[in-house]
């Protein structure tokens, strides 16, 4: 397997596992963002439990589970290709932290990867949010006499939205996704730079390969650092994409922002912030440490 393929494979595998770890916390965060009154993590968790039990925390997971692996492989793959291109244009044959322009190139590579990744997430986030909030098609399967099993169907949910509202429905929240495209692009650069700089700072030397401890701590730092500028936009996006498609309450980004401000003041834009930070640490440790581990194994098999 070529090195570029190893980056894609490692990114896909790490993203898949990261979704398994983070989806329940993402569902709690979404309930906090959608609530018209302040809601704590505990209150959101109890509401989900009462409504759907443990299964409620995993509503809508199948879509991001299938897509996150690809999105992460795309992110790390583009980072790798961008870094190779940028460093070679400076005359370097190997990518090393001690190379001239390494930090600048790392930030640019992360921005490029984050921006491309966001272009795909609009429709996928829309479907995931609909399913997490219980606005999905439920299928009843007979498992015995007078016994039925209720399951959420992603395929039928997508078809139902398309039949009722057409393709335009999947572009719901596109404007705010565009702004997230800009913010996430910068966030992607911050993410990669924070991760690599923390790893090498903890190891003490730029030319030494960081160990497990450095990688785990750096993953947590990169996670919450990159999420901080995105939280207000993520809250607005969740509100718009979770709105009633037939009779939408929000007329657009400005109306949603004004309503949030009227509802809870400036703090309304930070709904779910604590859960986002809590979630970002284990998820990004899983993704980044898993990525490094799988990449190392893949490269050793390719030799």
Automatic annotation (TrEMBL):
Cell location: Mitochondrion membrane
CC annotations in GO: mitochondrial membrane
Each Solcar repeat, start to end: 2-85, 101-201, 210-297
Membrane topology: Multi-pass membrane protein
Annotated InterPro entries: MCP_dom_sf (IPR023395), MCP_transmembrane (IPR018108), Mitochondrial_Carrier (IPR050567)
Pfam families: Mito_carr (PF00153)
Listed transmembrane segments: 57-78, 106-127, 169-192, 212-231
PROSITE patterns, A to Z: SOLCAR
UniProt keywords, alphabetically: Membrane, Mitochondrion, Repeat, Transmembrane, Transmembrane helix, Transport
Family as reported in the entry's similarity comment: Belongs to the mitochondrial carrier (TC 2.A.29) family.
PANTHER family, alphabetized: MITOCHONDRIAL BASIC AMINO ACIDS TRANSPORTER-RELATED (PTHR45624), SLC (SOLUTE CARRIER) HOMOLOG (PTHR45624:SF10)
Protein name (record): Uncharacterized protein
Organism field: Trichogramma kaykai
